[in-house]
Fold this protein.
Amino acid sequence: MTSQRRPRLDGLLVGVALALFIAGCSNPNEVFSGVWQPVEDGEYIVIDGVPTLALGHFGREVAGVVYFNVPGGSLFRQPCACAFVDHLRYNADESTLEFESVCDGQPVAVLWNLELTDDPLTGETVLQADVRQADGLSVTDTITFRKVEDVVSDAQRACPPE
């Protein structure tokens, strides 16, 4: 009787271990999904405004909108209130995302390099972004983003924002 119970117990333990492993792993097709805002409401050289990222996954594709707020307020910057994510390069293995944002009426595109990382102080997953102008200027803004919402609403997918 003992020999019959042992294989069942081993199988149960393997099943529980597998379930815990799967639950602990995040889906690589959803790691960038959500609304991301800067940890600090700072002044940026490359971006004239405070950016918010609204990103969503569609399988292994990422799409989204970048919003630009007036520093210290909730109003959107004019004439460029937002820009769609364009010319995307996504690497799930390295948790990196690169894209370009171009605003109507703005002469220079902005290149974004994003990397998911863990904040050493809080352990929270953050996006570390290096942002620069596409015209080759050496100036780079480094912005740390924190996820503030897991799901992007229909209104947040629009440009200009609703």
